[in-house]
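Researcher: We're reviewing a set of sequences before deciding which ones to prioritize for further study. For each one, I'd like a predicted 3D structure that I can look through quickly. This is Xanthine dehydrogenase family protein subunit M. If possible, include the structure in token form so it fits the rest of the review sheet.
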Amino acid sequence: MYAFQFERATDAKAAVAKLKADADAKFLAGGQSLLAAMKLRLAAPSMLVDVSRIPGMADIRVEGDELVIGAAARHADVAAHAEVMRRIPALAAMANGIGDRQVRAMGTIGGSLANDDPGADYPAAVLGLNATVVTDRRNIAADSFFKGLYETALAPDELITAVRFPTPDQAAYIKFRNPASRFALVGVMVARTGKLVRVAITGAADSVFRAPDLEQALTASFTPAAARAVKVDAARLNTDLHASAEYRAHLIPVLTARAVEQALKG
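Model: Here's the predicted structure for Xanthine dehydrogenase family protein subunit M, in token form for your review sheet.
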């Protein structure tokens, strides 16, 4: 590992100031993606600013009808939190299926969203549940947050502080995972609130995306059969050594149907 500075931030304002002063600095939360990239020399920050111990940044609380999860909350904490399990059990179950025990003990929701790995689970949860990403300076709707391969709406010195999740009537997340990395070859979050159905797909393309055809079919009939009847175009999907675009296109309605079946069971 090459030399770099390490700073531990005491508040969000101080952390952001460090990155404003040094364009090559990076925020460090759980480090599950950034440290691996540094070891492979894919990233070479001059400074790491640890934001994981900023007071309040790991809190999980209820505000009105929303579940608010601090950006530094670990995956394991989200999975085991009583309010998450009560209000959005699909989110708790999803968090419990991320990576392995070490990843869940260290990785954070804010770090996952800022990295926007195409196979990550949290982007599907945020987009499917119509969450709001809260930063040190603004609120960003889920539909405006994810931009492309490892690309989000965040400015280089912008820090995620929390994520606000509205409580759905029904929701479920199902993924077909890579057996080695446990990233999603395809992951599907289905959420129903009133008459509105949202379907978010991760692992299949360069970034998470919504599936309008599936949303329309499930709005008309919230049943597994309605999901299975939708044909997904493979043109925009990824082909790699793990799966072809055509196979991913086949998996999307199948997994969506399973998610609907699980959501209906409550």
